[in-house]
Amino acid sequence: MQRLGINQGGYHGDAIDVEAFLACFLSEAQTRNWRMETLPVEPDRSILTAYRPAAPGVVAPRRFYLSAGIHGDEPAGPLALLDLVRGDQLPRDAEFWICPCLNRCGLARNQRCNPEGIDLNRDYNHLASPEISAHIQWLTGLPQLDLAILLHEDWESAGFYLYELNPDQGPDITHPIIQDVARCCPIETATEIDGRPSDGSGILRPPVDPSARPDWPEAFWLLQNRCRRSLTLEAPSDFPLAFRVAALTTAVRTALRRLEGR
């Protein structure tokens, strides 16, 4: 499939109706016995969260966290999480926590930042935004997690790629993810991605030193506080929206399956 060629200087692709999306996600999740909570942020802002326990009788279940929509110009992530919940595609022998839309106002405006111009995915150290302050307060109530998967897009990318934080050197799940996604989406093979050198595999493993980077993304906060392993998935947003959603759902399903040894 060819790139659309519409993202010149920023994202200019499809947007979604965020209120309709949130209503749909809430309805689908409640129908499937997810426990929903809305975190108040400000009068015109909130964060929807969802929790599903493991099936009865599962001993010591794995614990997974999924998030999307922290950048308002990346609509594929929220839609991918909706598809995963709607299709019951998340394993029943694990616990799940989901934040399907962390930047409600940004997504409504199809813009990266919140209304104050803050990039929420650089605010997990400074806490300058009400959204991230509320999110961290909620995250601190979670137990230690086995894996966090953060769904994103890159409007400049020619293919799918991912970041992995895995300082304890857990088993490799990234290469199987790339192999499965490659069946439905091109993989980014550039020698430089987002200013970082790349070996062309579509897998980036940045240095794990939050102290050297003051503008923490969500993955850095999780590494320091709740989860020793995370994946940040980046779909190429210069392709049709449904195409990007499929790439992200494939990546999530493969990551969970491989981590559980299936």
Record keyword descriptors for this entry.
262 residues, alpha/beta, Aminopeptidase, 8-stranded mixed β-sheet, two-stranded antiparallel sheet, 21% strand
Q: What is the structure about, briefly put?
A:
This protein is α/β, with parallel strands linked by helices and 262 residues long.
Residues in β-strands, percent: 15-25%
- Overall mean pLDDT stands at 95
Quickly count the domains: 1
What can be said about the biggest beta sheet?
8 strands, mixed
CATH homologous superfamily identity: Zn peptidases
Helicity, as a percent range: 25-40%
Which overall shape is indicated by the principal axes computed on the Cα atoms? globular
Helix-strand layout with pairing:
Layout: H1 18-31, E1 35-42, E2 45-52, E3 62-67, H2 76-86, E4 94-99, H3 104-109, H4 130-139, E5 147-154, E6 161-165, H5 174-181, E7 192-193, E8 196-197, E9 203-204, H6 218-225, E10 230-236, H7 241-259
Parallel strand pairs: 3-4, 3-5, 5-10, 6-9
Antiparallel strand pairs: 1-2, 2-4, 6-10, 7-8
Helix pairs in contact: 1-2, 2-7, 5-7
